[in-house]
Amino acid sequence: MAKKTYDESSIVILEGLDAVRKRPGMYIGSTDTRGLHHLVWEIVDNAIDEALNGYGNEIHITLNADHSVSVEDHGRGMPVGKHASGKSALEVIFTVLHAGGKFTSQGGYQSAGGLHGVGASVVNALSSWCEVQVYDGKNKWSMRFEDGGKKIGKLVNLGKTNRTGSTVTFLPDAKIFKNIQFSFTKISERAQEDAFLLKGLKMIVTDNRKEKRENVYQYENGLQAFIEEINVDQNAMHEPISFNGESLGIKIAGCFQYTDDYQENIFSFTNMVRTRDGGSHEVGAKQAFTKVFNEFARKNGFLKEKEKGFDGNDVREGLSLVINLTVPEELLQFEGQTKEKLGTPEAKNATDAIVSENLRYFLEENKEVANTLVRKVVKAQAARNAARKARDEARKGKGKQKSERVLSGKLASAQSKDARRKELYLVEGDSAGGSAKQGRDSKYQAILPLRGKVLNTEKASKDAITKNEELNTIIHALGAGFEESFHAEDSNYYKVIIMTDADDDGAHIQNLLLTFFFRHMRDLIAKHMLYIALPPLYRIAKGKQEYYLYSDEELEDKKQEFKNGYTITRYKGLGEMNANQLWETTMNPETRTLICVTLENAAIAEKRVSELMGDKPELRRSWIEDNVVFTLEDDYGKDGLNG
To answer: Pick the catalytic residue: 260, 503, 553, 557?
Structure first.
């Protein structure tokens, strides 16, 4: 191989927005559907920042027939005057990274979610075209950008107007995004979330792509409505408790409610931006709940003086909590452009102080409810201790016989004793299970074949679940408990991998298993220990060359490269691959692709599982009609198997 020179000529400076187009993932996380919708969030966040600072209380999001999206606000309108750079301020906002009105007090933002100054310019960079209209109370202005901001139109005065605000319309670039179809449901859910967080804010989402539909959200007591929405299908133990306060210059609003469930649901926001990965404010809130419940329990005789206190997991069992911080610009620190984790150190102590003060008051003023809640915590602690004792005894030999009877003849276990390196594959069918057992790394990989479709646990009782042969085997194989006693860190495996065929039945089995883990072993998802294997759809070969392909797009690219003389194998099931092929494509840690199952929004996940897996077919039908595009086209069948 020729040696490549690395010198000053190797250094490339990406001008303007080229860096964004070259590495979009650095700015929006990905170029899949999540990254696509992140473009909308960037523009909406800017509109929210106006409303958050008292400028306008209505935002309108419109999905247009040409696949573009418009975001209209009633704020002050972006500046259009001449900037010190010689360009119009509007051009600077949409073409220069790290340019905006939130770096200086002159911008009028006491607090804001979009502080990096890259939101509008990133959206422009990743769009085929972007058009901005500004209303400054005197004139209506317009400016258009094309080809990722490379073509810049003139600032045009469209005439007089009395209104203020801005409208941003953009069409995502199909060369960057695999799919530019926006989800009305996803955008509506985010709009409703914003309306929950800011009292009086009116969010309107309109879909003009097919038959017109529209959702309008506005709440006067938003956080309480948020909690009620989260717990709509749960048995609440008391009314939602709202609180607010200010500490260390940070304003904190929140609401909480306990249910008789065992899952915790914590939703944190900073300046209206969802912090999915938590951060210092979540740490402070959790710290407050653990501390205050332990104080109350000792004071009222639930815990003896020398008795070990409650664990945080015990205290938060069944807790639904929403916290929204308003952090001034000089204190705000997000980790990364996608702003999913708060790094502000002061937020921890501020949140701890406000939550502690209000939680103490609630417990002291509502003794009957408080005693009921503490008794629930005591039961959670006892269940956790009992489950851990049972697992310890099982690992020492006691109680092993039952587990061995359940697993006998089904589980091909891994030889290693190190749970931190072991993986459990849940495989569809005995045929694929046989190939997986032959092709695996038997030191670290265990195989559990599943016969047929497992039970739909959304419709089943706890007794039916524990008596179900397939699910009972999974519970014993993991050895980490079940429901309230389940703790992922005690699992016999650090990765649980669902491996099914790439067809409708395989997808159904995946959904059934995901429902089971979400409802009864959610901590496995929270700890990022649940995965889905991605087997190849095709094998293409020409001469001595062969490639495994995982999508129709990859197949088309490779067909164009080979021109002719190739053969294609379509894998309809895992059992069609021999042991070596299954290892190389789907099980080898060096070459495989795994999808990590994560929980972005527990409230939406609760709603979606109920809709799709519950016993109300009308909800399932409605979701399918809103979100699934049906087509009669079959591109694969056009070419046959040979090129």
So the answer is: 503
